[in-house]
Write a structure and sequence with these properties.
- The chain has an 8-stranded mixed β-sheet with strand order 3-2-1-4-5-6-8-7, sandwiched between helices.
- The chain is globular.
- It has about 250 residues and is of the alpha/beta class.
- About 35% of the residues lie in helices and about 15% in strands.
- It has a single domain (about 1-235), classed as NAD(P)-binding Rossmann-like Domain (Rossmann fold, 3-Layer(aba) Sandwich).
- The structure holds NADP nicotinamide-adenine-dinucleotide phosphate.
- NADP nicotinamide-adenine-dinucleotide phosphate binds near residues 38, 63, 81 and 82.
């Protein structure tokens, strides 16, 4: 399993610089905590990581529908990410190499990340997390200034939510944990196949749609990859039509 993980990991890296990460990955399969693993993107990320040999634990609420993960060799920890005591209890005494957040803000809560991140990051540090891969949003924080004139002001509450996304990013960057932020834009329906051509870019003016399947692959490729550490990415996929179909 260890050799298989290393082979898939290196294949997936493509052109990424690996640095010293391959040596540590060789020693053991990475332990990954997936937040939002019962969701559409989270379940795809979980499958991708399990297939690559990672040991995955999914953070889920007691009410979460776990059917998309049936049959996968994953463990669950239970709690609500907005409840600091539940997060602390769920991670207490555990060790993780990586946290992947594929959480989607519920009910447009404009303080979601401001509430979630502080206790989560404390628990992540205590758990020895070496990389936090955060699926956020294009337009987070000051990035919104790059997209003036697109009519976003017609979307109720969007600027409050993007400010909160920016606060989540800031808390992560200042936490001392190495981070990889992947800002998502409009997603194609969950059953849309990967295009295979989506790429991460540090050009923060990029705004293209994308599929969750490609995001899952890009997440796996960045797992403990030196080239992805302390980076904020947008995703470019010029093969998909805008706007995505609604289903
Ligand atoms: N959908 C889009 O068009 C779109 C656009 C831009 C960015 N994104 C980003 O893409 C990512 C995933 O989106 P998605 O549509 O695939 O997500 P999704 O299917 O709606 O899944 C959301 C996940 O977040 C979990 N979650 C939400 N609040 C939680 C809480 N308080 N405690 C614990 N878990 C919680 C949900 O748990 P339950 O199973 O318990 O509900 C679920 O597992 C997110 O980062 C989102 O911001 C999506």
């Amino acid at each position: 399993m260890k050799r298989r993980w290393l082979a898939i990991f290196l294949l997936g890296l493509g052109g990424c610089a690996v640095g010293g990460i391959s040596a540590s990955t060789e020693r053991s399969s990475p332990r990954v905590l997936v937040l939002g693993g019962t969701g559409q993107l989270g379940a795809m990320v979980t499958r991708e990581l399990v297939a690559a040999g990672a040991r995955v634990v999914v953070f889920a609420r007691p009410s979460s529908d776990r059917t998309t993960l049936v049959g996968l060799p994953v463990e669950f920890v239970t709690g609500d990410l907005l409840m600091a005591d539940e997060v602390e209890r769920a991670l207490r005494g555990r060790r993780f190499d990586v946290i992947v957040s594929a959480v989607r803000v519920e009910d447009g809560d404009p303080n979601f990340y401001s509430k979630m991140m502080p206790s989560l990051l404390v628990a992540a540090r205590a758990a020895g997390v070496r990389q936090f891969i955060h699926h956020g949003a294009v337009g987070a924080g000051d990035n919104v200034k790059k997209f003036i004139g697109l009519g976003w002001e017609r979307v109720p509450g969007i600027f409050e939510r993007l400010k909160d996304q920016g606060e989540g990013e800031r808390l992560l960057r200042e936490s001392g944990i190495r981070y990889t932020i992947i800002r998502n834009a409009r997603l194609y329906p969950a059953d849309h196949a990967a295009t295979g051509v989506a790429k991460l870019t540090e050009d923060d003016t990029v705004l293209t749609p994308m599929t969750r399947a490609d995001l899952a692959r890009l997440t796996r490729e960045c797992l403990l990859a030196a080239a992805c550490l302390d980076k904020t990415y947008h995703v470019r996929d010029d093969s998909l039509a805008w706007p995505p179909p609604r289903r």
